[in-house]
Amino acid sequence: MKKANKLKIGVFVFLFSLLVVYIGFGSYYSSRFLPGTTVYGQSVGQLTKEQAEVKLINRLNETTYMLRDGDKVVGQFTGKDIGLKVDYNSDLTARMTQQNPWLFKTSQTVNATQNQGFDEASAKSYLSNLLNKENQSRTESKDASIQRTGNQGFQLVSETQGNQFNVDSVMSYIFENIQSGNQNIQLNNQYIKPAVTSDNADLQNNLKTLNNVANVSGSYTIGNNTEVVSNSLVLSWVDFKDNKINFDETAMRTYLRSLSQKYSTVNKSRIFKTTSGAVVTVPAGTYGWSINTESELSQLKQDILNGNKFSRQPKISGSGYNTSGTDIGDTYVEVSVASQKLWIYKQGQLVLTTDVVTGLPGQDTPRGVWAVWSKQQNAVLRGLNNDGTSYASPVNYWMPIDNTGVGLHDANWQPKFGGTWYQTHGSHGCINISPSVMPKVYADVAMGTPVVIY
């Protein structure tokens, strides 16, 4: 009987002990992972969720990633270097909730997909610095291009594939590999590709154009002169850079300005044979012509790109240009201040001679070669007298010749014309003409006619 009681007591104690152990085990692992539990390949058994998260984060920070180009290691970094982040908390919380510590199950493996992220600014800064430093010792890719072959023309130079990394695309590629769990990242297909290859249509068209340009020459007819634009000169202006045909516009402008300086008449004095037979030097006025550099530059570039030989007159600005080589020509007005005379020539024939009154000394009629730029009837001329008072003089005919208010007009206030009268009764600078003669002058002198005053 006693033995039976002892046995009962022993069994009770044993079962009670098991119950205590069971309750203790369940209570202990209600806040810890069961023994043998692995999460993302890391053992977290007997760790609290917080302890497991710290362990996983430490492992993440210490994970090393290798960048390889074929067999060569070109760089390495850790998760910490690029600010790699994983939201472990949600997975760990879910696993802790799902485990049942009361079933004495002592092992579980969690292979959930990692929700990885980056400190974008840190990752890009670190990786771009690493890759740019590596690129310094690597060969740059080169686009296909066109090069000059001495003075003979141009030829195609094929593209060159280098081995520098395309930093932006490589960084994206690295991030994709990290997300896939790949710690050995192969970069040998991530090189910068040439942007322009030999079969590029635009490049081929430019080569064709340049080879046509290589045969271009031309000439300018300026007055009765010819200026040759040689093929070698044309080639010195043309080049191929940045995947386009370029012109040395500075050199072209210099050339065109030199031609203009050589032949133009604007702002230049002229040797003029007067009606009396004397040869005088007449200073520059507003009349004259020059090569329009910008307009001609545009046309010259187009002529060159057309690939054909050209022969023509350059673009001209101003007045008086003609093919005879003189700009005054044989139709003009001649005024002699000394003799107080005006002559009108049309097509080389003298059609009118008259006495005039020019500017009072001190208000001299300006010497030079001018041109009639307007014709008006019944105008009022306004200005200031020597004493500062204003005047308003009605005239029947008004033909301005410069940009200061000087011109030809009738003057009914003048009692006589010619001789020395101008020395005491001269105009404010205009050329006064008898009212009886001025209608003929107005009729004979067309717009644009040069007026030579000496």
UniProtKB/TrEMBL annotation:
Residues 331-454 form the L,D-TPase catalytic domain. The chain crosses the membrane at residues 7-29. The keyword Membrane applies. One of its GO terms (biological process) is regulation of cell shape. Keywords: Cell shape, Cell wall biogenesis/degradation, Membrane, Peptidoglycan synthesis, Transferase, Transmembrane, Transmembrane helix. This is ErfK YbiS YcfS YnhG family protein. Pathway: Cell wall biogenesis; peptidoglycan biosynthesis. GO terms for cellular component: extracellular region. It holds the Pfam family YkuD. The keyword Membrane applies. It comes from Holzapfeliella floricola DSM 23037 = JCM 16512. The active site is at 409 (proton donor/acceptor), 430 (nucleophile). GO terms for molecular function: peptidoglycan L,D-transpeptidase activity; transferase activity.
